[in-house]
Amino acid sequence: MANGGEVAAGRPRCVLATVVLDCPDARALANFYRRLLGWEVRLSEPDWVLLGPPEGGTGMSFQSEPDYRPPVWPERPGEQQKMLHLDIRVDDLDEAEAYAVGLGATRAGWQPQDDVRVCFDPAGHPFCLFVP
C-alpha cells in the first residue's frame, strides 16, 4: 500500500485475512488457541474453524487434514520441516508456559534462548512465547 493506506497504482488491493494451520483435528486445535489467546470463534465448519481477537483484526484458521504430519524441531534432514511458527508475546514466561502446558502444549527439549520458550501445540506446531 502506498502512503495513507492507498493502493499503489497497478496493484490490486490485497489484505491478509487469516493464517491457516493444517492439523489432524481443526476443532481441537482451534479450542487450544482459543483458550491460549482468549480469542473468539468467528466461523466453525466440520473441518474448518476461524478464530479472531475480540477487538477485531486478522484471525487464525485451522483446517483438518487427514494426512497431516507434525514438523520436527529443531529441523533435521529428511524429516518434516516446519514452514512457520507463531511468536506470542507474554508478560511472564513461566506463567505463560505453565498455562500453555496446562492447555495441552508441550515444552520443546531444546531451548535456544533464555528470554524465549519454545513449545509445541497439541498438533505439534512449534510456537514461541517471548517477553519483549
TrEMBL record:
<dbReference type="InterPro" id="IPR029068">
    <property type="entry name" value="Glyas_Bleomycin-R_OHBP_Dase"/>
</dbReference>
<protein>
    <submittedName>
        <fullName>VOC family protein</fullName>
    </submittedName>
</protein>
<dbReference type="InterPro" id="IPR037523">
    <property type="entry name" value="VOC_core"/>
</dbReference>
<dbReference type="InterPro" id="IPR041581">
    <property type="entry name" value="Glyoxalase_6"/>
</dbReference>
<dbReference type="Pfam" id="PF18029">
    <property type="entry name" value="Glyoxalase_6"/>
</dbReference>
<feature type="domain" description="VOC">
    <location>
        <begin position="15"/>
        <end position="132"/>
    </location>
</feature>
